[in-house]
Amino acid sequence: MQQQSNASQTQGHAQAKTEEWIQSAQNTTNATREKASNAAQSAEESAQDAKEQSAGFLQQTGEKVVHMAQGAVDGVKNTLGIGESNK
């Protein structure tokens, strides 16, 4: 009878430890999942920021090229005598 009682206590203790370990594993899994989600969100936001900065840079560069080309056209017109200042 004493052995059965000891066996029941040992089994109960083992069951409690098992449940504790399972809960700990679930908590660790949830924390890891949340960290991964946050990292993915941060990476997505960084990529979007980089994309917007690149678009702005390209637009500014394009505008500079257009102005330079217009200046070159105006210079050629003035050299050939067909610019606005020679009308």
TrEMBL record:
Superkingdom of the organism of origin: Eukaryota
Polar residues composition-biased segments: 1-13, 21-31
Signal peptide (residue range): none
Sequence segments annotated as region (Disordered): 1-62
InterPro entries hit by this protein: LEA1/2/D7/KIN2
Protein name: Late embryogenesis abundant protein 1-like
Provenance organism: Xanthoceras sorbifolium
